[in-house]
Amino acid sequence: MHLRKAKLMFFYTRYPSSSILKMYFPDVMFNKNNTAQLVKWFSNFREFFYIQMEKYARQALAEGVKGEEELVVTVDSELFRHLNLHYNRNNQIEVPQNFLVATQAALREFFKSVQASKDSEPSWKKAIYKIIARMDESLPDFFKAPNWMEQLGDQ
């Protein structure tokens, strides 16, 4: 249940601090190990997200896309459907608009970087990570509730 909740929270925040996570998992008695585990989950979520961004950016280049403005992410996009299936398998929440914006921004940043051959440089992804980290938004309060799953329909 905690993993499912964390995946849904990823739609709002890709880089939550451990203090934020502690506020949104009130039923967990935090210690060094489980705090590290929760932080690791988000690291894994980001890794999957960014792998998809790079894959789709390279695919777009291979298909002849010339400019980043051609890359538009909507709820009907293959990329969005793939991410939604991974993080929100049962469509438990309506994905916030900001996630679409962040996904499109990440895709475009990867596209521009690969197109400019920045991917041959070490640490080329760090600049992208910083841009996307600034796109995090506040988590809805329903995630704090012990019965958060029951409240999903009320959002």
UniProtKB/TrEMBL annotation:
<dbReference type="GO" id="GO:0000981">
    <property type="term" value="F:DNA-binding transcription factor activity, RNA polymerase II-specific"/>
</dbReference>
<dbReference type="InterPro" id="IPR009057">
    <property type="entry name" value="Homeodomain-like_sf"/>
</dbReference>
<dbReference type="InterPro" id="IPR037131">
    <property type="entry name" value="Homeo_prospero_dom_sf"/>
</dbReference>
<dbReference type="InterPro" id="IPR039350">
    <property type="entry name" value="Prospero_homeodomain"/>
</dbReference>
<dbReference type="GO" id="GO:0000978">
    <property type="term" value="F:RNA polymerase II cis-regulatory region sequence-specific DNA binding"/>
</dbReference>
<keyword id="KW-0805">Transcription regulation</keyword>
<dbReference type="Pfam" id="PF05044">
    <property type="entry name" value="HPD"/>
</dbReference>
<protein>
    <recommendedName>
        <fullName>Prospero domain-containing protein</fullName>
    </recommendedName>
</protein>
<dbReference type="GO" id="GO:0005634">
    <property type="term" value="C:nucleus"/>
</dbReference>
<dbReference type="GO" id="GO:0048468">
    <property type="term" value="P:cell development"/>
</dbReference>
<dbReference type="InterPro" id="IPR023082">
    <property type="entry name" value="Homeo_prospero_dom"/>
</dbReference>
<dbReference type="GO" id="GO:0007399">
    <property type="term" value="P:nervous system development"/>
</dbReference>
<keyword id="KW-0371">Homeobox</keyword>
<keyword id="KW-0238">DNA-binding</keyword>
<keyword id="KW-0804">Transcription</keyword>
<feature type="domain" description="Prospero">
    <location>
        <begin position="1"/>
        <end position="153"/>
    </location>
</feature>
<keyword id="KW-0539">Nucleus</keyword>
